[in-house]
Structures are given as structure tokens and as C-alpha cells.
Amino acid sequence: MVQISSVFKLSLDPQTVKQWKRFRSIKRGYFSAVFLVFLLLLSCFAELLVNSRALIVSYDGKWYFPTYSWFISGDTFGLDYDWETNYRELKQHFKEQDEGNWVLMPLVPYDPFENDFSNTYGAERPSWETKHYLGTDTAGRDVLARLVYGFRIALGFSLVLLTCSYIAGIAIGCAMGYWGGAFDLVFQRLIEIWNTIPFLYVIMIVASVVVPNFWTLVIVMVLFGWTAMTWNMRTSTYKEKAREYVNAARALGSGNARVVGVHILPNTISVIVTFIPFSIAGGIAALTALDYLGFGLPPPTPSWGELLRKGTQSLDHPWIVWSVAIAIIVILLMVTFIGEAIREAFDPKKFTYYE
Amino acid sequence: MLIIPTFLGVTILVFLLTRIVPGGPLERWLQETALAGTEGLATQSSDYASQGGSTLSDEQIQEMAEYFGFDKNPLHSYVLWLGRLFVFDLGTSTKYNEPVWEIIRSRLPVSIFYGVATLILTYGVCIPLGIVKAIKHKTVFDNISSILVFTGYAIPSYVVAIALLTAFAAGFEWFPLSGFVSSNFHSLSLFDKVLDILHHAVLPLIAYVAGSFAFMTMLMKNSLMDNLAADYVRTAVAKGLHFRSAVFNHALRNSLIPIATSFGNNLSLIITGSFLIEMIFNINGFGLLGFDSLVDRDYPVVMGIVVISSLLFMIGNILSDICVAIVDPRVKFGADGSNQ
User: Fold this and answer.
1) pLDDT tens, A24-44?
2) CA distance B231 to B236
3) Contacting A residues, span 268-287, partner chain B, CB-CB under 8 Å
4) Dihedral (C-alpha) A60, A66, A70, A73: value to the nearest 10 degrees?
5) B183-198 pLDDT, tens digit each
6) In B, which residues are within 8 Å of A321 by CB distance?
7) A312 vs B137: CB contact, 8 Å cut-off?
8) What is the value of pTM for the model shown?
């Protein structure tokens, strides 16, 4: 802490430093944040951890790195086919040959799309031997691989959604709170009406016209998600607008843009920041629910909701449900703990209480 | 009274959506008859089958459009729909061919049961828990119950439902997998009937309730803490009042005001419920009806549900005001003309 505040002394104002200190002092939230950022960074390099392509292949004294490269055909390594090498078989092959060639596979040597029915037909129990650490789903795909890639997609989706809906929400909410009057009233009614449209309905309409993909889903969800932030921004802009510093700024000749951008917005930042974790959790939960219903991302995409559906359709494979359920619970719990800690850091409720 | 424009806006918007969107009941019907027509002509080439719709005359299509009310321009039929609404006629379901109101009414008991049970459980747990947490602020009990409550809040209710179903219905087989009552419900004695309903209700109720604890409990706790810190409570304690009666006679009543405000909003949840939970446990409630009607494009039912849920939302708002007036003697009806 000491180093951080001394390094950033020039850029961080004491208030922020205080809030950061308070956030760090709430262990539950702080460690959740550290762990979640760690997981996020890790998932950016998921290809190195969970992949059917080898990390390194050493063949005839040459090294190959197939992870991020274009596919390497089987005959490159002296196999008798010219489609993409099956590295798990190659590893076995090299071991039998015993000529000093070797293959280094990732921790989980499966990718989320391949159907592995080599051991059983249907879903396979978790096992260390086959390296399906969490088993496979009913289509023979590795559950852990799908969990990891599903996590990356869900979190990415949630972050994009958050950015877009916050930009819209902050802009409109600020305008409503700042101008007030008829503009505010009209938008209030609009939002009320807008909120009662069944959101699923619109998703279904979109699904009946185009196959929903990542971006169409983002657009539809932003269309319905901007209202929450708008309400909050409207309220806090109203509050800030009534305060004296706004009058002072105006008296000094600031225009609307300057008053809002330079004076009001920075003072509402705590509202925005405290809602971020809850929005992220909400985004993940919403995407998972949509995928669960079958209105989310199109089929082969690895997703938690799709796994949940597979698991509930066949309750005799409980490892599928448990893997996803525990993953969702852990991630969302961490996000909520972070949210709770941030709220506490920004708005410490100091009560006087009787001992 | 800004309720009426909102209501009109909502219904117009949803009504227009049902008209604009492809895949409505008319198209479905055309498709079905086309399929039925080709079944008899299975030996015909497939490209004939794709034009099967053309076997219907334009008159028949026109008749069907009239039957579904798709022959007039959308605004005109909206006005007609609204007119029928005033005499409490919600129309006929295009899927079940029954009056919409009958269908909705048949689902009501289930939804009301779960809604009221959820409401009672939520308030019955949250108010006492919030009070205890406020009095025992920063003790072990407070911390542990906070973690539990936030855990329930963090997990989406459908995940809770799926986890409970997998563990206690499929795994241990303690509870039935789905439904509101057993299939032999009618042959049971009254006592067994009650038991049967409760037996089916345990898992869905936990799933319904788990998420709603956090908000209420923390609201109760924080507002009671605010009041306990206020001068009037300190005065009460200082003049020799027992701490217990200071809390229950003085602080508690004031801190119930925010709880009362949120009561009305919960009312609309009574009936709309969560269709995901109803779907997972296969409970034939209001939420599932809404979802099914959307999937089946059963527009009269969709509109009926929109009407009822927005009416409930408004009644909820009014009830909130009444609750506040009961709890807070300073609020008098008519004293403030503004709504909300």
C-alpha cells in the first residue's frame, strides 16, 4: 500500500487512496478481486491450458509450437495423414517409437468442440486417467474445457454489455437529471413502458429473424439493460445538481457541458463504480439463463447455460450439473463479495451502536 | 394519475409487436395446414410440398386472418381489443381455443400459493433477522448470517433450483422431481393433500426465497441501525427506558417504513413469479404460462398476461402507499397530491 500511494501520489487524490485502503481492508472482497483478476488473466491464455493442440512438439530436433499457429498436418511428424495432427495420439506414437521425439500437452488436452467417444458412448464420468477431470457431457465434449471457454465468453460478454449499457445509461440519466422537467417526465414514462416489454419476447423475435450471435445478443440486451443505470444516474445527478458547487461553477460562467462533464460526473462516480460488480454478475446470470433456455449463443459455442441444460436433461450425469453449478456459484459469489466491499469502501456506514 | 398513459403505452407497444413479428398464429396455421396437406401426398416431389400452402384458396386465408383478427390494420384492432377489455373480455387463446381468462384463472391458485408463501417466508425471516443483526452488529452471528444471506443473493435463483433438484430430488430422492401435486392427489385425504402440496413445495420455495433474503434483511438492519443511532432512541435509553423496549416501541416502528415501501413491489412478484423456477420444477403457474404463450405465439394469452401483470404492478404501487400510511402516521392520503 505504501509503495502504491507513493508511486501514484501525483495522480491519485487522497479520497481515492482512502477508498482503496478501505477496500483492501475488507479481506473477503479484496481476495475475491485478486483471485478473479487472476482467473480473468488466466482465461485470456486458455489456449495454453486447455487445448487439444500440443504446447510444444519436438520432432527430428526441430521444435513446433502448434497452439497459436496455423494447423500442422499429420505428415509433418511422419504420420500417414495430411489433416490436422491429433496430438494426443502423436504423444502415444512418439512414446512407442522411443526415438527422442516428444510432445508436451496442455494441462487439459481437449478442446471444447471435439467429441471424444474413445472410452464410452455418451457422457463419461470424471477421471484422471482419460484426463477428463470433470468428465464429458452427453455429446462427449470435455466439461472442464467447456467451462473454461464458457467462462471467458460469459465474462467477456458481461464486460462488453456493461460498457455499452453504462455509456447509454449515464448519458441519458445525466440528461434526465440535469434538464429535468418535461424531458425527464417523458423519458420516465418511456422507461416504465419499456421495462414492461417482455425481454424474452424480443430475444425470440430476433432469434426467429437471424441466428443470434455474440453481437446481436449484446445489442438486444443493451436495448433493455440501459434503464437500470439511467435511473441511478438520474437520481444522483438530481442530487448533485442541487448542490452549491454547481451553482458556483455556473456563476463562473461554465456551460452545460462543462458543468456536467467536469463537475457533476466526477461526483457521481461512486454510484457508477458500486454498481459495476452487480452488473457483471447480472450479465453473466442473464447470458447463462438465455443459453439455458436455448435462446442464447448458437450451439457449438461453449457456454455454462448450455451445459446446465445438458445436465438437467439427463439427471443421471450429475457431474455435469455440479461442475457448472459450482463454477457459477463461486464466480458470482466472488463478484458479489467484491461489490459489497466496493460499496463499503465508497460509502462506509459507520453506525453508533450500543454495546 | 400517470398510471393510465403508462398502461396504454405498454399495451399498445406489445400489441403492435405481436402484429409486426413474423411467425404469428396465422403463419403457424398456414404451415400446419400445408404440412397436413402434404402428408396425404407423401409420394409427391418435395418441391411441391414446399408450395403446399398454395393449395389453400385466398378466401380461406382471408377467413383465417379474420378469425385471428389479423385482417384489420393494427391500430384498429387494438382499439377493438381495448374495447373488449373494458367488458372484461380478454379474447380466446389461439392455441387452446379457450377463453384467455379461463386459462389464466386455472393457473392462479398455484401462483398465488407460491407467491403468498414466498411473501410470508421472506417477511417472516427478514424482519426478525434484520432486527437481530442490527442489535448484534459486528458479532459473529452478524458476520456469518451476512455471508449466508449474500450467498443466497449472489446465486441466480434458477441455479439454486437446478442445484436443489439435482441434489435432493434426483440424488437423494427426498423430494419429488416436479409438479405441484402428485398424480394421485384426488384420492388423498385432506391431511395427506396438504402434506403432498408441502412436499412438492419445499424445493421451489427455497429457490424462490433464497435470493430475496439479502435485500430485505439488509434494508431492515440498516434502517434499524439508523434509527438506533438517532437522538430520540438515545434520549429514551437515557431517561431509563429498557433497551429492549426502546428498540421495539420506538425505533422499530420508524424503521419499518422502508420495508413497507417495498411491500407493494413484491405484490406483483406474487403472481408473475419466476418462470425459470416454474419451468425447472414443472409447476404450471403464471410464469410458465407466460413463457409458453410467448413460445407458441399465443397472442391473446400474451396480451392477457401483460394486462394482468401491469395492473398488478399499479395495484402494488397503490398498496405500497397504503402500507406506508399505516406505518407512518405523518403520511396522510390527499395531503401530498403527487404520485409515488
Assistant:
1) 888 888 888 899 899 888 888
2) 9
3) 281, 285
4) 50
5) 676 777 777 777 777 7
6) 162-163, 166
7) no
8) 0.80
